[in-house]
Amino acid sequence: METEQDVDLDIVATSYRLISDGSAFDDLFRVIDRKLSGRHFGQNRGQNPGQNPGQNRDKPFSPALLRQLKKARDLFDRETDQPVFGVVERVLSDVSGAAAVFLPDGTVMALNESAADQWGLRQGARTEFDWVLPESRSDLSGLRAACVQPRNSRHSILRIGQGTGSEFAEAFVLSDTNHDQPSFAIRSLALPWSEQAGAMLSEAFGLTAAEVEICRLLFRTCDIARVASRRGTSIRTVTTQLSSVFQKTGLPDQVSLIRLVAMLCARADPRKTSRIPVWTDPFGRETLFHDRHGRQISFSWLGDPHGRPVLLLHGLTLGYAVTPETDRYLARTGLRVIVPCRPGQGNTLPRPGENAVDGAMALVTALIAHLKLPRVVLAGLGAATVPLLELAARKAAPVCGVYSIGGFPTLVHRRNWSSLPVTHRTFFALRTHAPWVTEMIAKAGLRSMKQHGVDWYLRRAYAEAPDDLKLVENPQINALLRNACALTTAQGHRAFADDLDLFVHPARKALQALTIPFRLIHGENDMTVAPEDVRAVAGLNPKIAVRLIENAGELIFYSHIREIADDLSDFTATALAGGDRPDRNSMSTG
Fold first, then answer.
1. How far apart are CA 363 and CA 357, in angstroms?
2. pTM of this prediction?
3. What pLDDT score does 50 carry?
């Protein structure tokens, strides 16, 4: 019979495997769950059936086991990143120039830094391919058709750019991305800018920093007007600066300058590859400001810029990116959905020593003050609702209603913990007894995502949720989920650990203390929170209303966005008008 010591040894062995084997990620969850589920530790120490995993009277991890895990963590921290294996990620990272992957309708599925800079693309947005020259449009059309009609050509050479600054690019269909609808890639055959090339221009010709930047942008864009736009100045000013560059370098024109820069870039580092960008706002509406502590905060918006204000806090794999059609639909509902990046995610910086709940509350309070909103409805995606409830319960901001899109784990009754997915219940228990172990697992998860690609991560995250897995396989939704993952991991693994803090933060007292309306929209097939737990929430406070949606899971924000938009619009109009209609009988299943 397997003993507790056998399980401990298995945990240690799997932790060491995690350093070099991404498949050990799932195995580690399973073996830790065996220890915490009651088969070993719980049964040996008197855990009651149905008791919340991780809430044993004794500590589940012995000092000897913790010492071994810390050794594995230290070794893991010393390891460098492994090669990238994801198909899409490999297409973007193993070239020296601009590269992007598209869906047939022009949605940017993924891109590298060079493509974001040179072609002006944003991940999750849609392009009209106006940067592809007219003589290559028919080839591009044939390639897009090849995504759905395999008999068409699946590889083309395109000319991209403008005028004399045009360049060639290869374009080809990706056939092994595991999507129902294939995608295609376009990769520049030109060299990217090199910082060493800039240093050479400065040292050899005495160019100023501003003049080197002009050379960089001209090399990137091959167009003076776009250089001026990127610099935020006039075309005349750029022309004057270029005249100075020509005088110092002895070159006669722009073409000669671009050729010189290309030569310097090639000599500087001919094997250089382009990095996949961290994250960009898909709508190009990002605004940055600093709160009273000097912390940088990033936010954007969806819908009607002059509509009724709703402040939406994104989740972990639930970002705020939507399709252009959904953005226009939100505008028609009269909503202005303000979407900040949470601390430590996107371009919002964290404050040292601040936990996830307090950090999110401080962010929301600062944004409300910055926008001078007299009254606002707060909305959260999943566990991101938790700090919004705390803020509303403490009456620390002019909040007139809270709206939750999807439930969150602390709503789960203790007797139902055993029905949660293995990753959820294991993470919660670890966050209670050994939080630094979750840090190690979070790092491993981020590295595995980088190694094997976002699709690999998403399929594992929703493997036990059929409704959600269908959305992951949908190319349109997949592009939005990729943007959410980039947003979450922009500043490293801390976002995973922070979300766990939201998962385990008790929300019951805040729910009971609410004096404003709270509405919870939840998918009946969400594996995180059972319908019976959602229904029970309505009994905590007469201000609470819940609504269950059929054929929806955790990704309800993507599967039922229009229905949610209509409901949120009605809720916001009533809340802003000072109404108090919790509509507790709205627990529909349609």
1. 10
2. 0.73
3. 34
